[in-house]
Structures are given as C-alpha cells and as structure tokens.
Amino acid sequence: MTDIAQESAEAKPERGQAALDRAAAVKSLQRREGWKRRIPLLPALLFTIIVTQVPFVFALYYSFTDFNLFGEARKLVGFENYGDLFGDMFFRDAAWISIQITVLSVLLSLVVGTGLAMLLDRKFIGQGLVRTLIITPFLIMPVVASFVWKNQMFSATFGVLNWVIELFGFEGTPFATRYPLYSVIIVLVWQWSPFMMLIVLAGLQGQDTSVLEAAKVDGANNWGIFRQITFPQLRPFLELGTLLGAIYLVQVYDHIEVITGGSPLAKNLPFFIAQRTQIGFDFGRGSAEAIIVVIASIILANIGLRVLSNLFEGD
Do 231 and 116 share a structural domain? Predict the structure, then answer.
C-alpha cells in the first residue's frame, strides 16, 4: 500500500505538468491561428494607418509651431496656438455657427424622421416604393443636393420656393443670400431625415405587438401608447440617431461652400479652418483648430459607440 501511495504521489506532478504543457500548446496554437487570420488584414491596416494617422501626427506637430508661408523660419510655440483660439472672435463665431448647424439640423431631422417612421410603420399599398423614394435624398451626393436646392429651390429668379411665394402675392426672396444659415440647415434636414427615419423605423418594428394590443384593450389612446410605451422603447434609437448625425454634421463643408459661397453668416469651423489654411496659409493656427474639431468628434464618437453597445446589450 505504501508503494502504491508513493507512486500515485509521484504521478500527480507529472500529470499536472502534462496538463500545463497541453494548455500552453493550445494557447500557442490559438495565437498562430489568430495571426493567420490577421495577416491578410495587415496591408489594409497599414494603409489605413498611413492615410489617417500620419497626417494627424503632422497636424499635431504643426499645431505647436508658428508654421505659415509668410513668416520667418518655423519654430515651436508650445500651446500658444491653442491659447489664442479662445481669444479669436472669428473662431468663436465659427464655433457658434457649427453648434447651431449641428443642433438644429439633428433635432429637426430627428423630428421629421420620427414622423415619417410613424407613418410608414403600417401596411399599405406601395409601401416599399414609398419607403424607397423617402430614402432617396440621403443617397444623393452632398454637392449635388446643394446645387439642386440652390438653383432649383432657393433661386430668386426661377426657384420653386419663390414661385410659390409669388403666387400668394409676396415678393421673391434670395434665400441663400439673405438667410444662408437656415438655407444650409433646410438642406441638411432634407438629406438626413431619411437616415433618422430608418433608425426609428427599426425601433418601431422591434416593438412587442402584444403589449400594444393589451394597452388598446385597456382603453389607452394612441398618444398615451406612444408616450408611455413606444417612446421609452425608442429612446436608445433616438439617442443613436442623434449622436451619429452630430458626428457627421459637425464636419459639414460641401453644403456651405455650394449654397452660400462661404458667407460669414454660415461659416462653420471646418469651412473657417479651410479658409485659414488655404487662403491665409496659417498652418500652425489652422492645425490647432483642426485638432480641437477632431477631439470634439472623437468625444461624440465614443458616446455614440457606448450608446450603440448598450443598445445591442439590451437586445
């Protein structure tokens, strides 16, 4: 019995070592398999890093210099460019216009998109065709949409809006010239409402119909059902649409260039930065301003990813 017990005690470390060796072999195999899957993606990853991160690193470096084409030799100035931003009246005006464009465009497109989603969340003849036609504005290139609205809708000579106004006896108005900010917002709402509609419609079609039917049986009206049942369930979708829209609309440039030609009343941060670098050739200050916009976009993107993650966890 003593010999058997001794052999068993000696065998336990051997079995434990064998188990550790097998675990190490499995981990090594998993690492090799992981690298086999990653290697085909490395060229695309390297290309993405070169195209996106290398210019960002240069912009970050330039933001700490006084780099321009008319000054003396380039030299480091530290955070001077960032400190000057808050005292720059033109930068503050551009930031305020960016906030107006982003907030108003996102909120209005969200309201319009929600209304369209509520109308499309039912069966009717031609539902697929109508849905496709409503989505179409979002698929149009921003430059093309801006030209169409500027020449066919806002034109004081032959624009549709002025034609309707003149039918009621009022004088035509050059909308893009007199109201450049609101003209840009109208076009953005027209383009982004279909996007918001798709997100909200996905939330509406994911509702539990038995709960809605039970609420109707209990005597709840449509407004009560929407306020107490539908809206709370749509909240994650509304938040997602708001954040995704804000991430894009804070970077709007094409619509401002085409519709207003760079009017000071509709000059947001991206347009202002482009003018400072392309016309003023002040790359140091322009790079600092661009970094600020990038940081704001990253913050919005992180918030959006958190909302999206919570949405998927809820599902």
Answer: yes
- Are 153 and 70 in contact by the 8 Å Cβ rule? The answer is no
Counted domains in the chain: 2
In a domain, 86, yes or no: yes
Name the DSSP class of 46: H
What would the pLDDT profile of 96-121 be if each residue is shown by its tens digit? 898 899 889 988 999 999 889 888 88
Residue 11, judged by CB atoms within 10 A of its CB (0-12, 13-18, 19+), counts as exposed
> Facing residues of 76 across strands?
65
Containing domain of residue 140, as a range?
82-314
Sign of the dihedral defined by the CA atoms of residues 105, 109, 112, 114, in that order: negative
pTM of the prediction? 0.76
**Nearest by Cα to 172 from 200, 187, 194, 153:** 153
Are 180 and 54 in a shared domain?
no
Do the beta carbons of residue 170 and residue 161 sit within 8 Å?
no
> Among 296, 267, 274, which Cα is nearest to 100's?
267
Secondary structure of residue 123 in the 3-state scheme: coil
SS3 for 158? coil
**Number of Cβ atoms within 10 Å of the Cβ of 145:** 21
> How many other C-beta atoms are found inside a 10 Å radius of the C-beta of residue 207?
14
Note whether 187 and 145 are within 8 A (CB): yes
**CB-based contacts of 208: which residues, under 8 Å, 6+ apart?**
none
Specify which residues 68 forms β-bridges with.
282
Any idea what the Cα angle at residue 106 is, between residues 105 and 109, rounded to 5°? 80
Length of the chain: 315
Q: Is the same domain home to 30 and 109? A: no
pLDDT tens digit sequence for 259-290: 888 788 888 888 888 887 777 677 888 888 88
- Residue 10, in any domain of the structure: no
